[in-house]
């Protein structure tokens, strides 16, 4: 901000110098011309007065010539050394108007030079607010959105990513997860099938497909969901999501000890991805239900 105002001050100074310097010079020249015209008028008036005072004889003519010479010398002296101010009766017509006109342009440009920084500051303030908002939006792209809006935006971005790279298996898998979170189970299965064609089967993908069928059936383990879940645990017996899904099914079917055993095994694994507080709460709840 300090640099901004320093630049403004420098710009105004340059503008004032460019605008007013020629105006002041022209004003000074005009004043000098007025004084010269005034002295010439006075000179002529005094010569005419001298002609009236002297007669036409030779002696008077000599005196008249001497007086005219003195008047000329005196007026020239006034022009060079101490110019006289023009009397009101000898003021050049239109002088005041010309001076005003000569000052109007630099005065107007000075006003413009002062208004431009104010306008620039206003725009700078708006730009700063906009830039700050854009920065906050980049830091938190989901600010002010609810869950559904966030899901829709993420799905849209993933679809755009897939259009650019149709064989991006990770993008297809994340799209399937978003569809699953939005309860769009058929679209989720389509996305997971596409993922499987690109990168093959793994525990993560099989668990996601099993979870899709499980929640689509109203949290009931269908035969196909159980097959996929067992295949996932075969590939990775310690897969957290698969074990959590299996434990949840045991709990909902009143198989509390089986659920407790799975949750306890997850606690004993000391896996940093495990939410220990939630697991302990779940174990205590299952013990109370027994």
Molecular structure report:
Residues 142-269 form the Cytochrome c-type biogenesis protein H TPR domain. TPR repeats lie at residues 169-202. Its main location: other. It is built from eleven helices and no strands. It is mainly α. The chain folds into two domains: 2-137, no CATH class; 147-289, Alpha Horseshoe (Serine Threonine Protein Phosphatase 5, Tetratricopeptide repeat). Helix 4 runs antiparallel to helix 5 (169-181) and helix 5 (169-181) packs antiparallel against helix 6 (185-199). The two termini are 69 Å apart.
Short structural description:
This protein has 290 residues and is an all-alpha fold. It folds into 2 domains: 2-137, no CATH class; 147-289, Serine Threonine Protein Phosphatase 5, Tetratricopeptide repeat.
Keywords:
290 residues; Serine Threonine Protein Phosphatase 5, Tetratricopeptide repeat; single chain; mainly alpha
């Amino acid at each position: 901000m300090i640099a901004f105002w320093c630049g403004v001050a420098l710009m105004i100074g340059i503008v004032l110098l460019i605008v007013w310097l020629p105006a002041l010079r022209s004003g000074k020249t005009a004043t000098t011309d007025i004084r010269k015209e005034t002295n010439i008028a006075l000179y002529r008036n005094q010569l005419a007065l001298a002609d009236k005072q002297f007669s036409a004889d030779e002696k008077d003519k000599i005196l008249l010539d001497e007086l005219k010479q003195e008047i000329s010398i005196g007026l020239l002296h006034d022009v060079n050394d101490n110019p006289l101010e023009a009397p009101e009766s000898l003021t050049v017509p239109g002088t005041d108007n010309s001076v005003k006109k000569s000052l109007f342009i630099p005065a107007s440009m000075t006003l413009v030079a002062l208004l431009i920084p104010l306008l620039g500051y206003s725009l700078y303030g708006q730009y700063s607010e906009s830039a700050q908002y854009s920065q906050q939006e980049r830091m938190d792209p989901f600010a002010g959105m609810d869950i559904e809006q966030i899901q829709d935006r993420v799905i849209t971005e993933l679809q755009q990513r897939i259009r650019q790279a149709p064989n991006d298996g990770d993008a297809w898998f994340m799209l399937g997860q978003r569809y699953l979170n939005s309860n769009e189970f058929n679209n989720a299965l389509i996305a997971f099938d596409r993922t499987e064609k690109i990168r093959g089967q793994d525990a993560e993908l099989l668990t996601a497909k099993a979870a899709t069928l499980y929640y689509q059936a109203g949290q009931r383990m269908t035969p196909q969901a159980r097959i996929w879940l067992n295949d996932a645990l075969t590939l990775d017996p310690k897969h957290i999501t698969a074990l959590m899904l299996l434990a949840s099914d045991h709990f909902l079917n009143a198989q509390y000890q089986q659920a407790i055993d799975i949750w306890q095994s997850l606690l004993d694994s000391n896996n940093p991805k495990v939410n220990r507080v939630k697991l302990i709460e779940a174990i205590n709840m299952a013990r109370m239900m027994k």
